[in-house]
Amino acid sequence: MANLDSIFHGLADPTRRAVIARLAAGPAAVSELAAPHDMALPSFLKHLKVLEAGGWIRSDKAGRIRTCRLQPDAARAAEFWLGQQRSHWEARLDRLDTFLAQMTDDGGTDGP
Amino acid sequence: MANLDSIFHGLADPTRRAVIARLAAGPAAVSELAAPHDMALPSFLKHLKVLEAGGWIRSDKAGRIRTCRLQPDAARAAEFWLGQQRSHWEARLDRLDTFLAQMTDDGGTDGP
Lengths: 112, 112
What we know:
The structure is a homodimer of 112-residue chains. Chain A has helices at 4-11, 14-24, 30-34, 41-53, 72-107, and strands spanning 28-29, 57-62, 65-70. Chain A has a three-stranded antiparallel β-sheet. Chain A has one domain: Arc Repressor Mutant, subunit A, CATH 1.10.10.10. With 112 residues, chain A is of the alpha+beta class.
């Protein structure tokens, strides 16, 4: 399992995010993945290596064709971490809401 | 609005993720944020700068105390992007399931 450093580092580049978005639609050969990107193949392959190190993709070679597949665990780990922070954040806002509502109730002068 | 490159770059480091996790529980002074991290203050401040550039935090100075707050938009953008990829990925798996179910139906020999 890749660590969160390399998982998030995988996402910090537009070429790598485009590769992930393309592979979410299904596996693709390296040549097909590289085609839309205006860069030399070695540079593109470096991005694929970063994605592999981050656990985002896996690749298999059949004959002379290397095919890449998205690995869902990286996305799950990234979403899980973000979801944890959001739940802490939202719990805090809920407590703040409750606190403010209590302040309003306590301070209300228009009650019966 | 910070771009996705800098949003995800903000997450690609354990110190920065720890700062985000701490701030999800509420605002904190820079000195309090820095305390658990075994690094020189200038190095820690660089991490805060990366988080500010990624739109993760905002800071305000009152007297000699600089207080940092989490900005929820960065997390929302990150979760939105990941959610989009997941929905594409899941839609593809659903189509694959349907396809496989049809293959099984078509090829079934034990039906009435």
